[in-house]
């Protein structure tokens, strides 16, 4: 039902004879990450170019786009190493660990907040520059 709703809301191309392809699954992964941060309208705006130009037969297939995008996730682990360097002057190991963990959680939360704000602003700019096609 949820996947059918994604297709009805133009987040995901409709399956061919109720069969989903690898590209459908890859788009579902992107939707999974976006849906906790953004509304359907913003997700549709962000995915529309990818769906139109890289879904199905395309010079640059969606699988390659997916691989390229998700190789960037490894750089996010630097945040943990940065947090481990905080509160270096605290002598009690338990206290130091608790404060470093809190520091790491705050860093992640602030990062998510800022990125969500940026994504929403970019989605607005995309929507203004490339108005969405009429709904089905």
List the keywords.
single chain, 136 residues, mainly alpha, 6 helices, 0% strand
Poorly predicted ranges (pLDDT <50, ≥5 residues)? none
| Content-based structural category | mainly alpha
H-E order:
HHHHHH
Please report which band the strand proportion falls in: under 5%, 5-15%, 15-25%, 25-35%, 35-45% or over 45%.
under 5%
Helix count, per DSSP?
6
Major beta sheet summary: none
Q: Can you tell me the overall shape? A: elongated
Structural summary, described in words:
This protein has helices spanning 2-8, 22-35, 40-54, 62-70, 78-84, 93-129. The protein is an all-alpha fold. It contains 6 helices and no strands. Helix 2 runs antiparallel to helix 3, helix 3 crosses helix 6 and helix 5 packs antiparallel against helix 6.
Give a summary of the structure in a few sentences.
By secondary structure, this protein is mainly α. The chain has helices at 2-8, 22-35, 40-54, 62-70, 78-84, 93-129.
What is the secondary structure topology, with strand pairs?
Layout (H helix, E strand, L loop, with lengths): L1 H7 L13 H14 L4 H15 L7 H9 L7 H7 L8 H37 L7
Helix pairs in contact: 2-3, 3-6, 5-6
């Amino acid at each position: 039902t949820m996947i059918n709703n994604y297709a009805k809301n133009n987040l995901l191309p409709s399956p061919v004879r109720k069969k989903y392809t690898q590209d459908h699954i890859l788009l579902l992964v992107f939707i999974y990450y976006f849906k906790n941060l953004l509304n359907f309208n913003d997700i549709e705006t962000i995915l529309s170019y990818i769906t139109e130009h890289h879904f199905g037969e395309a010079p640059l297939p969606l699988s390659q786009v997916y691989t390229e995008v998700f190789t960037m996730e490894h750089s996010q682990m630097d945040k943990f190493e940065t947090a481990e360097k905080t509160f270096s002057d605290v002598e009690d190991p338990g206290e130091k660990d608790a404060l470093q963990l809190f520091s790491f959680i705050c860093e992640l939360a602030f990062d998510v907040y800022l990125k969500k704000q940026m994504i929403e602003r970019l989605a607005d700019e995309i929507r203004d520059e490339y108005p969405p096609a009429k709904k089905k």
